[in-house]
Amino acid sequence: SKQDFIRNFCIIAHIDHGKSTLADRFIQKTGVVSDRDFNAAGGKQILDSMDIERERGITIKSQAVAMQYTAKDGNTYTLNLVDTPGHVDFTYEVSRAIQSCEGALLLVDASQGVEAQTLSNLYLAMEHDLHIIPVINKIDLPSADIDRIKQEIEDDLGLDSDLAVAISAKNGIGIEDLLEALIEQIPAPKALSEKPLKANIFDSHYDPYRGVIIHVRVFEGRLTKGQNILLMNTQAQYKVETTGIFRIKLEENEALEAGEVGYILAGVKSIGDLRVGDTITDLDNPCDAPLPGFKEVKPVVFSSIYPLSSDQYDELTEAMEKLRLNDAALVYEKDSAAALGVGFRCGFLGLLHLEVTQERIEREFNLGILLTSPSVRYRLTDKKGHTWMLDNPAKYPEPSQLELCEEPMIKATIITPTEYVGSLMALCMKKRGIQEQMIYLDTKRVELIFQMPLAEVLFDFYDSLKSLSRGYASFDYQESGFAPTDVVKMDILLNGEVVDALSQLVFRGNARERGLQICERLKEEIPKHQFKIAIQAAIGGTVVARETVSALRKDVTAKCYGGDITRKKKLLERQKEGKKRLKMVGNVELPQSAFLAVLKSK
Ligand code: GTP
């Protein structure tokens, strides 16, 4: 059958192990783009279409591409590569993409070895019964140690290292062997086109000309033009307008059959109306049950966005609406704060998602914005037994009314070379972590499992982990419910005025230290003014820390020696540039960076 010549697969890997490079190499090898175009693109990152993704080198949105490959057996196969995002913020998207495949290439960097996300992605793939091919990448590196990696593949992953394929995605070594292995080992999808329709939505994106493009994997039945469909979890109904496959550009076709990966258009107005992971079926001839594992993605980090100048509120509204079309995980509602005017309260999947959103607003819409101190969502219970969720520190109630405050917890998995175990355990302890497990993966590496408050992971955890381990430790986490906590609201005052956007809920035991840290960081971030600025951190009216920004004395251009006009100009321009990114709060101009800086120790 047609399905015998289809292979659906994804590439899973720890960040930076070369997933995008390999995907591009496949695309080049199978002629989806000509060698000329490949070279014109710098031979790089064809799948990552968003600018920011390219610059940060992180794949955020999953995408798919259909490749034709004539194998050594003389048959031509359609290889559907479903791309998966690689960062901890986007695990749910990974799992939906994985669900759409029969097999996965598990990429391991030949010099770095197995890391936390390699494992967590492997578990996801195993949950969905995927056939897994271990791939050792970057064998061109002088530090590549193929034997050691093979041992890790056996010991840590429990996979047969004899099946591992060694490649260099960068230099194009071993790519054909890998394609052959993929065709040989990964099972073809089942030929179930005669059954009622059952298809998985694994992604969607908004195209200004065509509207919402739904990325689907058909498991049973077929999707055709004119068909009335039902999305089983949201109960939404649509009519299919077009079906097609991904070939870098969209390519329309007759129908999508069981086993195929492609897209449909169905007059969906906004991505917010769709849920990744939902099951599409035929309205008149529905399948008996939706595909398993559907869940609503929940934001875990909250922050408010304000325009730097308040007359740009309408522009910000428009930008938010447009972003929402393309980012179903972004949730927001109108918000206002005394010092900042009108803006939006937003929920994000993690700090990375927050930073990417900030950058997109600034870059794609050319809007200066400010984000308030991010917060997790607490569960509060008052003395009358009433329970509610709170994610905005500005709205924290009078403490005497509260019976209980609970905070979200995570289960953190850290994999590290043994020499860093001591300092990483100390770090986790300092972050209020409780050790659950410590496993020696082999003589050189340890897996640590900690229960930790999510809020502590937001504050500088990842950077500290990386610097303490010289970049060698890796980290992944899962949500794990709520636990009672003791937090206090810390206010930040500038010249005696509370800046509500800087208010934070902090753990009582760390409050003093955090206050000192925040004041110190703010002192660095706030530019000098014509007058002195007092920065204070206060808990319930008691000042716990203070710093002062001294008054401005010199003209900036006075620093320029000689009469170098161009330098002077540049300096003034830079000053202007900097001004654009300031927000008036009372009589103090706060740089945008101040709000995120308070989260980072240094
Ligand atoms: P994310 O998209 O951020 O998850 O990263 P990724 O896994 O897609 O990694 P990417 O393809 O961006 O590669 C990361 C880095 O490794 C880049 O600098 C690549 O040039 C480099 N790289 C990828 N493959 C190879 C290889 O075979 N050999 C060498 N030496 N470098 C490679």
UniProtKB/TrEMBL annotation:
Q: Which UniProt keywords apply?
A: Cell membrane, Elongation factor, GTP-binding, Hydrolase, Membrane, Nucleotide-binding, Protein biosynthesis
What InterPro entries does this protein's entry cite?
Answer: EF-4, EFG_III/V, EFG_V-like, EFTu-like_2, G_TR_CS, LepA_C_sf, LepA_CTD, LepA_IV
Q: Which domain of life is it from?
A: Bacteria
Instruction: Please list the reactions this protein catalyses.
Output: GTP + H2O = GDP + phosphate + H(+)
Which GO MF terms does the UniProt record name? GTP binding; GTPase activity; ribosome binding; translation elongation factor activity
Tr-type G domain residues: 4-190
Q: Where does GTP bind?
A: 16-21, 137-140
Bilayer disposition of the protein:
Peripheral membrane protein
What SUPFAM superfamilies does UniProt report for this protein, alphabetically?
A: EF-G C-terminal domain-like, P-loop containing nucleoside triphosphate hydrolases, Translation proteins
Pull one GO CC term from this UniProt entry.
plasma membrane
State its Enzyme Commission number(s).
Answer: 3.6.5.n1
Localization, per the record, is:
Cell membrane
List the transmembrane segments. Answer: none
Question: What GO terms in the biological process aspect are recorded for it?
Answer: positive regulation of translation
Concerning CDD domains, the annotation shows:
EF4_II (cd03699), EF4_III (cd16260), LepA (cd01890), lepA_C (cd03709)
The answer to whether keyword Transmembrane applies is: no
SMART domains in the record, alphabetically?
EFG_C (SM00838)
Which Pfam families does the UniProt record give?
EFG_C, GTP_EFTU, GTP_EFTU_D2, LepA_C
Role noted for this protein: Required for accurate and efficient protein synthesis under certain stress conditions. May act as a fidelity factor of the translation reaction, by catalyzing a one-codon backward translocation of tRNAs on improperly translocated ribosomes. Back-translocation proceeds from a post-translocation (POST) complex to a pre-translocation (PRE) complex, thus giving elongation factor G a second chance to translocate the tRNAs correctly. Binds to ribosomes in a GTP-dependent manner.
Which PANTHER family does the entry mention?
TRANSLATION FACTOR GUF1 HOMOLOG, CHLOROPLASTIC, TRANSLATION FACTOR GUF1-RELATED
The text of the family note is:
Belongs to the TRAFAC class translation factor GTPase superfamily. Classic translation factor GTPase family. LepA subfamily. Belongs to the GTP-binding elongation factor family. LepA subfamily.
What protein does this entry describe? Answer: Elongation factor 4
